[in-house]
Amino acid sequence: MRPLPPIRIFLESTILEWEGCIAAVVCLAGCNLRCPFCHSSGLTVRGDPADDIPFDTVAAVLDGRRSWIDGVVISGGEPTIHAELPDLAREIRALGFAVKIDTNGTNPDALAYLLEEGLVDYVAMDLKAPLEPEAYARACGVRVDIEELRRSIALVTARAPDYEFRTTLVPGLHRPEDAAAIARAIPGARRYILQGFRPQECLDASYLQRPAFPKSDLFAAATAASAHVALAYARGERAPTPAYSED
Q: Which CATH class is domain 7-234?
């Protein structure tokens, strides 16, 4: 077997990470961003290879659950920083499972390859802030090439078999109206999902003291965003939103 990316966390089954599916989740170590509100801070660095979970262990569990697991989510960290990612997707598909990729969209070349090779069935792309350099840098903790993000958006909407875009709204970092600004960058997208910030295990400890947005703010943000996309809603708390129209 070829070398595969470092699997740091393996969740054997969940109904939360791929809507409408029962999925297993593999989280890869390492990320190219340093979002201060990240609640997976333990996955931002590569860490000790001794902590990696062998793929054979993952495969053995999946093989025993193939009758009721629909697919496998490859998350992180950021999966696309690993050159071996396509081989991991191939191994999972060879076991008979669909593949979902969670990505921050900063590596459109890697995303294009996965889509061209037919290695993913669903893409979930995070949009951290309105597509403006300073706002994005604040949200990500590092500078990000906005044009690369736009390339990834175009790839996802044009080539992904199915997809969603999503934003975590963080008090003090975002305003509820930012959701509409982000939605304008993905006009007509199938799904735009808002997630409420959770002050847990944040990369920047000062964010542990920040409260979450009220659900009413998330609903209002989703309603405003829905003017630009096919469907917008808050994760786990769907509220009716107006239908998108190209007119």
A: alpha beta
